[in-house]
Amino acid sequence: MKNIFLTSAIASAVLISCGAVQSIVQNTFPYTANVLVSTGVPADKEVSSTATASNVQTWFGGNNNAKIKDVRISDAKVSVASPSGGNLSAIKSIKVYVSSSGTKERLVASRSDVSSNSSSLNLDLNDSGFLDEVVKSSGLTVRTVYELKNQTSSDMNLKIALNFSSVPAK
What pTM did the predictor assign? Predict the structure, then answer.
């Protein structure tokens, strides 16, 4: 009985420490894009905006030999950068796609029926699989597609914040 208890305690400690080591070695790297919602954008029509990465590419720069793998989107958020005190009440839906040179565009996050009067909103993550090829290729591009409920009375700048996570490759 004593051996069973001791064995299970040791096994539990080993499993917990493996999880802790995994979380320590897991990498998270951010990407942000700015989207201008102009006053003239009509309601109930999808509009697209594209931005090319700068911060993700500084880490990898199109380096297919980067020592990471299992890259996924771990978090996606949209927030109002300006005007000060602005909110997302005019947004009806939003979709975020990623691609890079030589890769297909992939939907990574979205939100339909946005009903938020706050200045920021977490997006729903889509199961886009691993994004190793997209992140390691040059020219990472984020395309944001949005639809308004009603026309805005002034220009609005949105900030799209994506967090990628990965683990070290062997």
Answer: 0.79
